[in-house]
# Entry
Amino acid sequence: MTNSNKRLIIRLSIALSLWVIAIILQFTLSEGMVSEIIYGSIYVLAFIIAGYDVIIGAIRNILNGNLLDELFLMTIASIGAFCMRIFGEPEYLEAVAIMVFFQIGEVFQGVAVEKSRGAIMSSMALRANTCILIDGSEVDVYKVPVGEKIVVRPGEMIPIDGVALEDGVINTASLTGEALDIVVNKGDTILSGSINTTSPITIETTKEYKDSTAAKILDMVENATMRKAKSEKLITKFAHVYTPIVVALALALAIIPPVIIGIINGFNLGIFKSYIYAALTCLVVSCPCALVVSVPLTYFAGIGANAKRKIIVKGGSYLEDLANCNTVIMDKTGTLTKAKFGIVDIIGDKEEGLKIAKGLELNSTHPLAKAINSSDTDYYDFDVEEMPGYGVSATKDGVRYICGSRKMLDKYNIEPLTIIESGSVLYVARDNECISAIILEDEIKDEAKSIISKLYEMGKRVVVLSGDTEATVAKVCSRLGIKEHYSRLLPEDKVRKVEEIMKESSDKVLFVGDGINDAPVLALASIGVSMGQIGSDAAVEASDVVILNDDLNALPQTLKIAKKTRVIVKENIIFTIGIKILVLLLCAIASLPFVTGFTVPIGVAIFADVGVCVIAVFNAMRALRIKA
# Structure
């Protein structure tokens, strides 16, 4: 619990004690001015202790031009209740109750936000404050430059991204949620947030702390509340309209009816008393805090429910878009498949084709290139030019070498070898002649079929976009039961296709990929989701949602959380507005000239404000416990 909340609880405890003492004295002391001064003074003291910061805040906001906020409304309503002494019947009890219960509502809000934030940050336990340098000294992580050597002892978190200078074993559960030990060899990249599990390991930092993986993930989580959902913005606008209208009605209620009745029947203070009391009730009801607190808190809790599952949603606006998403577009390689290709056949000149291919693909990070580079064959040394979506080429001793897709051959008018394309194919050409075709196959993820079934059960349209051959894409989609796919797409073709689908769809469109060459599409789609690319700056920056592990189960989970979060938001809006309208209608009925002996107690108004706010806050916190 924060110190400010602790201090407020202590103040409220003192104020409540004084309030109870004052109530006891009020109803036990004999009537008279002295008795009233005694218990009235205690009421005033309780009021000041409970609400001095509210009064100061209201004055400060008035000076800044923000007149009709909840601080102003509570201050006017409570001071107005004290001023009922003018009419001979002071409402001391209600005056203090307004302020005390308003502050109790603030405590509940603060604890709820703190709990939600704590749940998120504990699920993202990635922060390291210091690290050990190679000389044994301990320094602040923010002061460690790039290229510094640091030592991480067994059980400690790796504080900064770097390269291992010796072999070791790490656990990436804090990052991905998968409690698997991973063997690290000298020269391997290690991401911050991982835990060193065995012997001490020396790392040479490749980034500053602020640019490291763990820091970026924490930054995404902490800044998630900055991107407000449309519902949040709508509620803010509603409060700016609703509050002035109710205040104006309260003012009119306090003045117009008693003046009219006074003109007709003659003026007396008793006439004004009941109408001013009703106006004060309206002021308390007009406070919009239940709405302006519970709606953002619900989205924040929904973000927390995702974070528990290692899914980072960058803001409430994206959570709302997920709830409105009916089309899911998926990349094939690395999303539906494991991106672990194996060579199944080589047509043509096997030895020469593989040597050329390995030389051309040696420094490529593409999944197909990894399969080529894992072979034991020798390779030629080339100065390579990469052509995204096509392949790679190089010129050596006046001869052009090519390794790439069928489109790469078509680009240079090279006739391909005749093959039955049963997998992904890399064509190898030398001096404008195709000499080999390397056939590779990828392995479908174990959970892919069940996830696709779940998406269809949720009523989603599922589309696959791939740069692979038609035969390969059709084969994968057939196995998974996907009804719609598009093949042989270059990165720019994917962008055009997503634009077409977005024009066709009346709802939000989600694109999910592994982040490799997908940044333009991730940025274009209504919601861009990257999977398993926590070390890729481009993927993380372009995405609206980041799935830290490589598990497709996270996709239907985040969609369900978004839907349930939206339901809770609607519940809070309907409940809060409904109760306030009901109480305002009762106030209006009680104010009619022909209605006698019926008033709406301020206690009812306090419930319509603080009670409803507390209920809405507790309901909002349900989003943190959503089961998906």
